[in-house]
Structures are given as structure tokens and as C-alpha cells.
Design a protein that fits this description.
The protein has about 160 residues and is an alpha+beta fold. Helix content is about 45%, strand content about 20%. It contains five helices and nine strands. The strands form three sheets. A four-stranded antiparallel sheet has the order 3-4-5-6, with helices on both faces.
Length: about 160
């Protein structure tokens, strides 16, 4: 993993040829550099977990694609930039990321994010929150949509 302020393509190629896994431009904010490094460490631990059955030692950290979540601090970063989520948006995102590819019905999301007293409420409540969340997670048209709608059923997180 290389963090540098020198961002010439020749330097990137040379670093990658010499064994670097990732070459990242130096961010102006030191915290963004730390987040990038933690995201890569998390991704590496996930690969080890899948290949060797090891437990994830970075609990409370979720990283998929360009989305990085620190559950304990209620912080979310997309492409290295912090975004602000409402408590409901944060609960939905963490739930979907922890259980990626699992389908969550509208009622399941209502129960998990809002509480059992909301179960059976209007699906529009979920739809509206997911719409806002998707907009915050998608910083450009080039970014993938991670939250997928299963028509008339619910949602899943699909990297």
C-alpha cells in the first residue's frame, strides 16, 4: 500500500510492478489517509477470512467497494469523503452491508431500523429512506448502485 503526493502514471506502474497492492494519492486530510489504509486492511482481512477461515479482527468496521463504515463512531466514508447519515439511514446501511446479498423485505427493514412498532407500516417509509441513502452513497454516475430494489419485495446490498 503506497500513499504519495506524487501521482504520475509511471510511478504508479512502477510501484505496482514492484509489489504494491494499491497506489493511492495522498489526501489533504490525514484522517482520509488513515481511512483508506483501514479500508484496505479490512478488505485484506476479509480475503484471509474467506481463504483461511480466520476471524475478522477489525470488528465494527465495514468496507465494501468505496463505502467504509465505522459502526462504533457512526461514521461513513464514500470514496474517502465523510458523508452524514441520519440514524435510520445508518442502521439500514449497516444492516444491509453486514448481510450483503441477503434480501430484506420492507417489513424486515421497518422492524430492524425503526422498531417492532413500525412493522406493517407503509412501504413508502422504507422506500423514501432508501432513496435518500442511495443518493448519498452515489457520489457520481460512475459509482455502482449497491442497494438493489427487488420489486414489491424489498432490498439487498449487492456489491
Amino acid at each position: 500500500f503506497i500513499i504519495t503526493s506524487n501521482f504520475h502514471i509511471q510511478d504508479q506502474v512502477e510501484a505496482l510492478q514492484n509489489g504494491a497492492d494499491v497506489y493511492c494519492p495522498f489526501q489533504s486530510n490525514a484522517e482520509e489517509n488513515i481511512i483508506s489504509a483501514l479500508a484496505l486492511l479490512y478488505q485484506q482481512s476479509q480475503l484471509l477470512k474467506r481463504s483461511h477461515g480466520n476471524k475478522n479482527t477489525l470488528s465494527g468496521i465495514l468496507a465494501i467497494g468505496n463505502i467504509f463504515v465505522m459502526e462504533r463512531n457512526y461514521r461513513v466514508f464514500v470514496c474517502g469523503k465523510e458523508i452524514h447519515l441520519t440514524p435510520i439511514e445508518f442502521k439500514i446501511l449497516a444492516l444491509l452491508m453486514k448481510n450483503r446479498k441477503q434480501l430484506f423485505t420492507y417489513d424486515m427493514l421497518l422492524r430492524e431500523a425503526w422498531g417492532e412498532e413500525y412493522e406493517g407500516s407503509s412501504h413508502n417509509l422504507v422506500w423514501h429512506q432508501i432513496k435518500k441513502l442511495k443518493k448519498k452513497l452515489r457520489t457520481s454516475q460512475d459509482e455502482p448502485e449497491y442497494i438493489v430494489n427487488i420489486h414489491n419485495v424489498g432490498y439487498r446490498f449487492y456489491p
